[in-house]
Amino acid sequence: MSKKFPIKNKKYPLLGAHTSIAGGLFNAIYYGLEIGCNVVQIFSKNQMQWKGKPLSKQEIAKFREAVARTGIIPITVHDSYLINLASPKKTTYNQSFEAFVDELERCEMLQIPYLVMHPGSHLESGEKKGLNKIATSIQKAYQMSGIQRTTVLLETTAGQGTNLGYTFEQLNHIIHKTELEGNIGVCLDTCHVFAAGYDIRTKAAWKKTKKVFDRVIGLEKLKVIHLNDSMKNLGSRVDRHTRIGRGEIGLKGFTHILNDRELREVPMILEIPGGKLAYKKDLKILRGLVRAS
What we know:
Order of helices and strands: EHEHEHEEHEEHEHHEEEHEH
CATH superfamily: Divalent-metal-dependent TIM barrel enzymes
Structural class: alpha/beta
CATH architecture: Alpha-Beta Barrel
CATH topology: TIM Barrel
Strand content: 15-25%
Radius of gyration: 18 Å
Shape: globular
Distance between the termini: 36 Å
Mean pLDDT: 95
Strand order of the largest sheet: 1-2-3-4-6-8-9-12
C-alpha cells in the first residue's frame, strides 16, 4: 500500500477551521492564514451540487503553491452534503456513489490526507441495512477509484432523524465491514457526540467517553476532531452548532480536549456560525485554553 500524504510543518495544537473556497480552492488556504489557522478543512467543490467541474492542472498547482507559501496544512475535504450512501432510493444512491468516488479522486489530486463524510441516512429502510450499505459502498468506491493515500473519516452524528453514525458501535460496524484497515477512521464532532448522548463537559466525563471510544473503535482511529459547541442539551439528538463556550458543552469541556496529551497530534477544526470574525475570535479562545506543556 502507498504511503500516506505527510503532514508537515506541525505547530501544536493543530487548530483550524472550515474555510471558504469562493473564488478558487487556493483562496481557502489564504483565508486560513488570515484567521489564524495552521490546518484547514475545505469542500473540493460546491457542496450542494452533485457534480463539480474537473480540477485543472492549473487549479491544483495554485492550490499547492498556496500551501507551500503559507505552511497551512489542508488536512481534510468534507464531502458533499447531498451524498447519502445509505439511501434506499436508486437514483439518489447512484448519484451519491458517483459523487463519493469523485470526492476521493479530488482528495488524491490535491494531496489531502482525509475525506470526512457523514455516514448517511437509512430513510426508514432500517439501521442495519443502512449501515451495511454504507460499508459496502465505501469498499466499492475504493476499489473503483484505485485511491490508496486518502483515508475516509466517518463523522460522528447527532442521530437526528434517520441519520446513522450516532453511536460508536455503528461506526465500528461500518469500519470493520469495509475491510479497509488503514484507509478508514473517525472524525469526532464534539457537538454531535454530545447531542447523541456522550457527555464531554467535565474532565471525568471526557475520560469516560474517550475510554468507551477506545474500547469500541480504538483511539488510533481518531484522526480529526471537529470542535463545535452545542446549542442543544445532552442526548437531544439535535445537530445545532454554536460558538465555543456559548453552548451546553462550555469552555471547560474544550479545555479538557485541548489539553489531552493523547490527542496532541489530532487536528482540530472549527465549524461554527458567524463567519470570518467568529472563527478568528474562537481560534484565539481555544489557544487561550491550552496549558503550557
